[in-house]
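Email to the structure team, subject: Glycosyl transferase model.

Hi all, the expression group asked for a predicted structure before they design truncation constructs. Nothing fancy, just the tokens so they can compare against earlier work. One-line instruction: predict Glycosyl transferase, return tokens.
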Amino acid sequence: MGAVGLSEGKTVYIVLLNWNGFQDTVECIESCRALSYRPATVVVVDNASRDGSEEKLRQRFPGLPVLQTGSNLGYAGGNNVGIRYALDRGADYVWLLNNDTTVHPEALTELVRVAEAERQAGILGSKILSYLDPTLIWFAGGWVEADRGETGHIGLGVPDRGQFDQVTDTGYVTGCSLLVKREVVEQVGMMDEGYFLYFEESEWCLRAKRQGYRLLYVPASIVWHKESVSTRKLAGAWVYYMTRNRLYFMSRNGAKARWLSRFGSDLWEFLRLLAKGEFRLANCMSSGYWHWLTGYRGRREQPVKG
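Reply from the structure team: attached below.
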């Protein structure tokens, strides 16, 4: 498909959340500069990086909007800063894009094309391939089982042979590449910052779906992902937030939550970690449960009630 013309294009703001990831963010910005779609504006939100990212990005890309959050607000909080900035400046669409990605020149064009063609489309996602092995799929749509507190990617790790090349409705859209219409944000609000990390975009998608919007997977929009670059070294954080937020996600979205199954699976995992001597990770699991039971949310180091 050809690019949307300058005179007919909807205004899109591309929000890149940076946290100690200068080199990845630079590569992502450079790939966004090759996008065929216009008008599109890249905005970087720096989540209180400690590696000098903010200043280096300002020097590397003079004139590029770089917003400083002042503290690490997590995925939802940081992206919400960018979304507000975009909407205040008249954005018709906001494209949330992980900074550890690169994009095909037509990726945004295809997302907007489908969004404009499908009136009820509210949130749309790309076909995401592995950056290290572009023949492998990372995301070709998603599934959600809220009663079990589980979400997952369709096609994860499968060779891309065109088997997922139809635009389809999807259970949710991963925040790695997520295009949202302005009206959706105005109707359903921002992402819930209490999650801090993980499940926030899943719940956001479900909230949009409950308001009658369609969630669409757009395979002609291609993105390459480096796969958890920012959290690979944070195994404990991953265990804590996945444990805690899964329970919140179930309690808020599972109509017939299967608590016994959830508790049984988590107990088995907890005992497995103890048996392997992974005491730090087991402690992260128990902390996740404790904070859920006592109603604490947000950042683990600075939890808040509610």
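DSSP finds nine helices and 14 strands in the chain. The longest helix spans residues 235-253. Ping us if the truncation boundaries need rechecking.
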